[in-house]
C-alpha cells in the first residue's frame, strides 16, 4: 500500500464527514424552524 493512495482516502473520508455534518446541521435547523413555526 502506497502513502499517496492512503492520504487520498483519508482526504475523501474527511470531506464526506464534513459534508454529512453540514447536511445534518442544515436539517436540524430547518426542523427546528418548522417546529417553532408550528408550536411557537
From TrEMBL:
Keywords: Membrane, Transmembrane, Transmembrane helix
Membrane-spanning intervals of the chain: 9-27
Descriptive protein name: Uncharacterized protein
Organism: Rosa chinensis (China rose)
Amino acid at each position: 500500500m502506497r502513502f499517496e493512495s492512503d492520504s487520498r482516502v483519508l482526504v475523501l473520508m474527511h470531506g464526506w464527514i464534513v459534508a454529512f455534518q453540514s447536511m445534518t446541521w442544515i436539517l436540524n435547523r430547518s426542523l427546528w424552524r418548522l417546529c417553532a413555526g408550528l408550536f411557537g
